[in-house]
Amino acid sequence: MPSSLDQRDRRRDRHERDAHPREPAPPAAAPPSRTRTRALALPEVRWALASLALFLLALVPYLADGPAWLWGTLFAAAYATGGWEPGWEGLKALRERTLDVDLLMVVAALGAAAIGQVLDGALLIVIFATSGALEAVATARTEDSVRGLLDLAPATATRLLPDGSEEMVDAEVLAVGDTVLVRPGERIGADGRVVGGASEVDQATITGEPLPVVKETGDEVFAGTVNGTGALRVRVGRDPSDSVIARIVRMVEEASRTKAPTQLFIEKVEQRYSVSMVLATLAVFGVPLAFGDDLTSALLRAMTFMIVASPCAVVLSTMPPLLSAIANAGRHGVLAKSAVVMERLGQVDAVALDKTGTLTEGTPRLTDVRPVPGGGLDADALLRLAAAAEHESEHPLARAVVGAARERGLVLAAAEGFTAAPGRGVTATVEGRRIEIGSPARLLADDPDASGDEHARVVRELEEAGKTAVAVLRDGEPVGVLGVADRLRPDAAATVAALTRLTGRAPVLLTGDNERAARQVAERVGITDVRAGLLPEEKVAAVRAWEAEGRRVLVVGDGVNDAPALAAAHCGVAMGRAGSDLALETADAVVVRDELAAVPAVVALSRTAHRLVVQNLVIAGAFIAVLVAWDLIGTLPLPLGVAGHEGSTVLVGLNGLRLLRTAAWPRPAAR
After folding, report:
1. What b/e sequence results for 261-271 when a residue is b if at least 16 CB atoms lie within 10 Å of its CB, and e otherwise?
2. Which residues contact 80 (CB under 8 A, 6 or more apart)?
3. Which of 297, 252, 239, 188 is nearest to 560 (CA)?
4. Using one digit for the tens of pLDDT, what is the confidence trace for 425-437?
5. Strand ordering across the sheet containing 192-197
6. How far apart are CA 336 and CA 264, in angstroms?
């Protein structure tokens, strides 16, 4: 027998089809629209807003002792707009022999109204309608982001014909074996291998590497990555529908569909509770009648039973702690997208961290300025010379060098004759001297004696430390070496330690960057398990392997290449400042202020919220048990039953609101 959660999933899918109708794929000349779904385009949002507005309008005359016909009409309209859909879907579920708890909530709300508790019933309707609307919006935003990912791949490509001529074609019609020309600054149109030319390619969207990678003949390139200053001829190696970027789209979509929805406690037992409550209410009504009780007395007892046994307090047992935790986390820069997410965060027992943009800041920084003895330059003079030559370059390394010079307040001389050679570096004339800056392996390749000199020793030292070495030559002679690295976040080590204490095992590093750089970062933060050089599907495979072992994995990342793993994990957290749109939408939570230490803090907060949920469930269960026993064994006055029911609801609500206090936010570094 299908569960009521399945019913809600099918209902959500139907509304998503209404909001995003599936039409035949447009022709290649007309790429699909990437517009963002408006919240008001979703039926759930429109009905929830209408119900809330009518509830607020009715509240004023109700509290002011206004005419009953006025507030009664407005409340009735609020019931209708917010409750018709779950009521109708619940009736349809009954045809499939499934009892939907949403239908019981509508019945409980109507029962409350029947005995004069109109306000309580309307509030219950509004809460359920709002919850459904928020879920629909979150789902639509994720689907929009997945569709928008396709924009990373260019719509057109320049295909080279056998006679040497060129033609502009739609990228999706490229076939394996075609050769395409990728000009400077263009996105690569298909996965393949370079067959001519040399350039530096920014492939951070695929591998997460912080710096562009030199690509020459024989090297593999990926669709959607950005070419640098050189021109490349690329032979297509995969059909566009099977490119890495296309596989990322499919993996995110599949993970989002197959990821079983976590259910709050009440949802896990809702089917049994719902059936039991209906049967018990019928029994409370029918048994006294069978033994000669009058209809009015039996009906009043049954109505009282339904009110005191209704799960309102149980529902509020879970929501206030989780919603309060969401609000508290939001004040501290963490956006948890739903109460389900807040529950999931506290369940994790394994953590996988990305490197670039997560453990590190994701932006190259100048870390070392090392003049060569005998070169006649001190550190500031070397940096000033290098920054002047790099000033016109758009390369991330150049920006790091120029930025460091400006931070030191150095005045840069004018450079003349600037040229840039992909994979080699830049050349310019500064103060009458020819300055070359670039890869030591390229600039010193013509110097057979360079391998044993001081210059080469410094290069080896920097590279062994996981940094990128940049050679500086003046008139062909080495005068210094610059070290550039992606700077580690200051709270990275403390965060790793806190996550280790919370989960009982050290986090794992999953990165597309090279092994040496990954090991250097891992050693500095206390991680021993390092998986480097991973493509997005390999990150997903690692997460799914852990999940198959029974672990509940938390993945923390920031890039497009992290999105499939974020979707496949038990819970995904994206770093907000540098996070890609896809990662931010796919993740269950976003660290808005980009403070890595907030990750263990929100995990600890979630666990505190879970403890309060358990406390509330015990309180609510105790009240229900006492009131139900009173109604069955003795005669529970209806006003007292309503008071006890509402009192338990208020009590568990106030208990949950304790997490709104600023003091409830954990300080994981001190735990």
Report:
1. ebebbbbeebb
2. none
3. 252
4. 788 998 888 998 8
5. 166-170, 156-160, 179-182, 232-236, 192-197, 220-221
6. 15
Cα gap 641→625, rounded to integer Å: 12
Which residues, 6 or more positions from 526, have their beta carbon under 8 angstroms from its beta carbon?
A: 493, 496, 497, 500, 506
Backbone angles phi, psi at 562, to 5 degrees: -90, -15
Query: Rounded to whole angstroms, how far apart are CA atoms 429 and 419?
Result: 10
Q: CA 111, 113, 118 angle in degrees (round to 5)?
A: 145
Closest Cα partner for 473 from 367, 364, 377, 366? Answer: 377
- Please pick, among 178, 354, 513, 631, the residue that the annotation labels catalytic: 354
Task: Tell me if residue 441 falls in helix, strand or coil.
Answer: helix
CA gap 638, 141 in Å, rounded: 46
Would you say 271 and 96 are in contact if contact means Cβ atoms under 8 Å apart?
no
**DSSP-assigned beta bridge partners for residue 196:** 233
Q: Which residues pair with 574 in a beta bridge?
A: 557, 590
Predicted confidence (pLDDT) at residue 622 exceeds the cutoff of 80: yes
| Interval 3-23: pLDDT, tens | 333 433 444 444 434 433 333
Give yes or no for a contact between 471 and 483, defined as CB atoms under 8 angstroms apart: no
d(Cα 334, Cα 338) in Å, to the nearest integer?
12
In terms of C-beta density within 10 A (0-12 exposed, 13-18 middle, 19 or more buried), how is residue 155 classed?
middle
For the record, the structure tokens of 512 come out as 């597309």
- Which tokens belong to 595? 């403070």
Lookup: tokens for 51: 């119900």
Q: Are 563 and 582 in contact (CB under 8 A)?
A: yes
Taking the CB of residue 597, how many other CB atoms lie within 10 A of it? Answer: 18
Whether the model clears a pTM of 0.70, i.e. scores above it, the answer is: no
Pairing between β-strand 350-353 and β-strand 226-227 as defined by DSSP bridges = unpaired
pLDDT band, very low/low/confident/very high, at 202 (cuts 50, 70, 90): confident
Encoded tokens for 127:
């809460």
Q: Is 240 helix (H, G, I), strand (E, B) or coil?
A: helix
The two structure tokens encoding residue 545: 């392997």
Active site residue 368: no
